[in-house]
Amino acid sequence: LFISELDSCSSLFKTARMLFEMTLMQFDAHQFNQASTFLGPFCFSIFIILVVFICMSMFIAIINDNFRRAKENVRHNNNQDIISFMIKKFQYWTGMKKVTEEEIIEERNIQMRSEYYDPIESFPDKIDQLLNALNQVCSISFYIIYTCLILLIHL
Question: Which DSSP symbol is given to 99?
Fold first, then answer.
């Protein structure tokens, strides 16, 4: 559409570079306005809506889903660990199994590790906060683009 008007659309490589810059939101949209008063903003808005908001939201949702699955797996493994811990303690209590030196050292190591803060445990919560902030930004940006399109149509 804009091959003759825009230098950034003159070749396939330049067009791909321009679209990548648009995806990163580092593109000057005034060039489209100067090339065509209606088609420029319309094509720019459609591209931003499709790529930036829909595809990026889908990408972030996939990542978030995988983090939640990993978090559920960790919780499930903890339940199995609790059961094996209870069985082992029962065996020690009844005298069916004797405590070895390695188990004593391992118990001390576990107690030492439990005293330290693990930032990985708060990572899923931080991801949820990030996604909420991105959803708010996307909603505001969509509203701004929508009002700009309405203003452009009325001009």
Answer: P
Measured CA to CA, the distance from residue 12 to residue 134 in angstroms comes to 32
Q: What is the largest CA-CA distance in the chain?
A: 88
Cα separation, 57 vs 105, in Å, equals 47
With a cut of 70, say whether residue 153 has pLDDT above it: no
For 1-44, the pLDDT digits (tens) are 565 667 666 777 887 777 777 777 777 767 776 777 777 778 77
Q: Who's near 15: CB < 8 A, 6+ residues apart? A: 8, 9
Phi-psi label, residue 117: left if phi above 0, alpha if psi -120 to 50, beta otherwise? beta
Q: Report residue 137's pLDDT band, with 50, 70 and 90 as the boundaries.
A: confident
- Integer Cα distance of 135 and 155 in angstroms: 30
pLDDT tens string 64-104? 888 888 777 777 666 677 777 778 878 877 778 777 788 77
Q: Which of 36, 1, 37 is nearest to 19 (CA)?
A: 1
Burial of 142 (0-12, 13-18, 19+ CB in 10 A): middle
Residues constituting the chain: 155
